[in-house]
């Protein structure tokens, strides 16, 4: 490719990425002004390159400055819980309870849980943490008639799947869809990020061994802090 046709932002991003490779996690990133002077470009060009590196998870905001970020948390796409996935990667999981209520199922929730619209369901909304950093927002709906006993002693800052298994219910399968979205202002506030930051949105419907619905989950993850990985194998001929 003719170098003169490569976007200037791409060239600057590549140069900054090389600088980051020589820095350690938590080290400060040179300022926009310093980088613009070093590369002989406008500060807006540097600003755009830094925005792309922020989304890529290479850097993060800290106070009024920018520092080198640790690698993204790569979650496996599996029936395992967020807690299990984070621990397997050497990260410390955590949750902050936002909402825990019994509410009437809307048409979409009722259809996923095979209930009549208006039937009461249990709704838990929690901020997901990794090493104390807010990385996701999880909203779970459970059939109340199956899991009302969770009210008796479940700690919502711990794994919900472990609590479900403790009731004698085993997850046997799930359907999951992933798409990219932007966070609503409330969601961005809970995740301590900008509404302009791309998010990964997961919709999951899980069932037990009899095919009966267990949960309907909407999980929103920060695109700069989380990636997903799936293991694939050939289908039988």
TrEMBL record:
<keyword id="KW-0238">DNA-binding</keyword>
<dbReference type="InterPro" id="IPR011663">
    <property type="entry name" value="UTRA"/>
</dbReference>
<dbReference type="InterPro" id="IPR050679">
    <property type="entry name" value="Bact_HTH_transcr_reg"/>
</dbReference>
<dbReference type="GO" id="GO:0003700">
    <property type="term" value="F:DNA-binding transcription factor activity"/>
</dbReference>
<dbReference type="InterPro" id="IPR028978">
    <property type="entry name" value="Chorismate_lyase_/UTRA_dom_sf"/>
</dbReference>
<dbReference type="InterPro" id="IPR000524">
    <property type="entry name" value="Tscrpt_reg_HTH_GntR"/>
</dbReference>
<dbReference type="GO" id="GO:0003677">
    <property type="term" value="F:DNA binding"/>
</dbReference>
<dbReference type="InterPro" id="IPR036390">
    <property type="entry name" value="WH_DNA-bd_sf"/>
</dbReference>
<keyword id="KW-0804">Transcription</keyword>
<dbReference type="Pfam" id="PF00392">
    <property type="entry name" value="GntR"/>
</dbReference>
<dbReference type="Pfam" id="PF07702">
    <property type="entry name" value="UTRA"/>
</dbReference>
<keyword id="KW-0805">Transcription regulation</keyword>
<feature type="domain" description="HTH gntR-type">
    <location>
        <begin position="4"/>
        <end position="71"/>
    </location>
</feature>
<dbReference type="GO" id="GO:0045892">
    <property type="term" value="P:negative regulation of DNA-templated transcription"/>
</dbReference>
<dbReference type="InterPro" id="IPR036388">
    <property type="entry name" value="WH-like_DNA-bd_sf"/>
</dbReference>
<protein>
    <submittedName>
        <fullName>GntR family transcriptional regulator</fullName>
    </submittedName>
</protein>
